[in-house]
Design brief:
By secondary structure, this protein is of the alpha/beta class. Helix content is 38%, strand content 21%.
Length: 455
């Protein structure tokens, strides 16, 4: 599955904006018609499903200029205590709806989850474990900012049941770190990875970003070499999306410092060549994993899934999001909490919940969701399972979509055969574009302007 064929001309031809498909339809379709009554109906739809929990911690000590996440910059640790008070109320309100479920996956994201002190982490984890039933074994992960923690915090996380960590590295080059306002101790990052291995954590992921100011192909390759020397189980190599009109902090980055589009492409090409040459499996888009990692194993067995955290092995779960701005995937519906922290507090005070907008999928949405998820995870699609599940004749139902797909077939990116389509090694980097052929929502051209370029 890791074979990638680089075709510069086709990559440049198709490098336009499009969704990342962590959901279908995307969050742009969420609306206020979806409320708690619809959420409750969705929660009751598949009561036998296991549960995945996502907890959003919005606080960061310092602003990274490239960041587009929902965050609150503060140095006042007491704000986290107030937030935990409200999270406790949300947890108490939501947990009874899932009393028969078993939690097999937990992820804390942000912001910076390790903004919380050890006692605050223990408090929140205790709340979750009192109100939800956790499996003895599962994937329990947390995102870590390596700049403001002590090495001993990993021991606390291990004791609290976390078995996976994700470190935001972005780049080891000091000049790049300085210009994006994210200076960090590279040796300490290596010590964190080594300590995680000593503690027996199941997986360590490192996040990198290419396309940041002052980066070159050579400087980023040096970062890759240092990363590979640590042998993390997973790597995420993200394309920096420079959208200063949407994210005000990005206006602090100078256009003249940005690598040219051709340089960005060369960084990606070199990253794929080097990482796959070092034994990493290309999972898709921006994810890599060692062959024995559960993500790589799931992909090879056709059991890989995708949700708002990206690629996952836990696709049969319902996903409950807790905290400001968090998103749930429950039943055949999506729901999002309020994005503004003050509004999140106010609505919990007034209504006892933080739900804001959402979207209930119809049958066509469910069909296209399953199709897109299969393509983006496995790079191939058999028609028969979807025909049997949804009672359709695939070629007839998707006749218009196949017309859109034909240009990809003509360019050798997709092979269409009787009863199946498959993405060629040349097409795998453009999987988002291929999926767009089946996305009836993104056909509104104005929608595309809301997304970053696919590469």
């Amino acid at each position: 599955m890791s074979i990638i064929e680089w075709d510069q001309a086709l990559i440049e031809k198709y490098n336009y904006s499009g969704p990342r498909y962590t959901s279908y339809p995307t969050a742009l379709e969420f609306n206020s018609d979806f409320g708690m009554a619809e959420f409750d109906a969705a929660a009751a739809r598949y009561p036998e499903r296991p549960l995945s929990l996502y907890v959003h911690i919005p606080f960061c000590h310092k602003l990274c200029y490239y960041c587009g996440c929902n965050k609150v910059i503060t140095r006042h640790q007491g704000k986290a205590d107030i937030y935990l008070d409200y999270l406790e109320r949300e947890i108490e309100a939501m947990a009874p709806r899932f009393s028969g479920r078993t939690v097999t996956q937990l992820h804390w994201g942000g912001g910076t989850p390790t903004f919380l002190t050890a006692p605050q982490i223990q408090r929140l984890n205790g709340l979750l474990r009192r109100h939800f039933h956790f499996a003895n074994e599962g994937e329990f992960s947390i995102e870590i900012d390596p700049r403001r923690i002590e090495l001993e915090l990993l021991d606390v996380l291990k004791a609290e049941g976390f078995n996976r960590i994700s470190l935001g590295v972005q780049d080891f080059n000091k000049d790049v770190q300085k210009v994006v306002n994210r200076e960090q101790d590279n040796d300490f990052i290596k010590a964190l990875v080594a300590r995680a291995n000593e503690l027996g954590l199941e997986s360590t992921n490192l996040d990198l970003i290419y396309g940041l100011p002052l980066q070159t192909k050579e400087s980023f390759h040096h970062t890759l070499e240092q990363v590979v020397a640590m042998q993390p189980a997973r790597l995420s190599v993200f394309n920096y999306a420079h959208l200063p009109s949407r994210f005000s902090a990005q206006r602090k980055l100078k256009d003249e410092d940005m690598p040219a589009p051709a340089v960005k492409l060369s960084m990606l090409q070199d990253s794929i060549r080097y990482l796959t040459g070092q034994g990493y499996q290309f999972i898709g888009m921006d994810h890599f994993a060692l062959p024995d990692d559960s993500l790589a194993v799931a992909q090879r067995s056709g059991e890989l899934h995708r949700n708002f955290q990206g690629y996952t092995t836990q696709g049969e779960c319902d996903l409950l999001g807790l905290g400001v701005s968090s998103i749930s995937m429950i039943g055949d519906a999506y729901s999002q909490n309020l994005k503004d922290l003050k509004e999140y507090y106010a609505q919990l005070d007034e209504l006892g919940h933080a739900q804001s907008v959402g979207y209930a999928l119809n049958q066509d949405d469910c069909l296209r969701r399953d199709l897109i998820k299969t393509l983006i995870c496995n790079f191939e699609l058999e028609f028969a399972p979807l025909e049997a599940q949804y009672g359709i004749i695939f070629n007839d139902y998707f006749a218009e979509d196949f017309e859109l797909l034909q240009t990809f077939v003509d360019d050798g990116l997709v092979v269409r055969e009787a009863g199946r389509i498959s993405v060629t090694p040349k097409g795998r980097l453009l999987i988002r574009n291929i999926c767009m052929c089946f996305d009836v929502h993104s056909r509104k051209q104005a929608r595309r302007q809301q997304f970053s370029r696919v590469i």
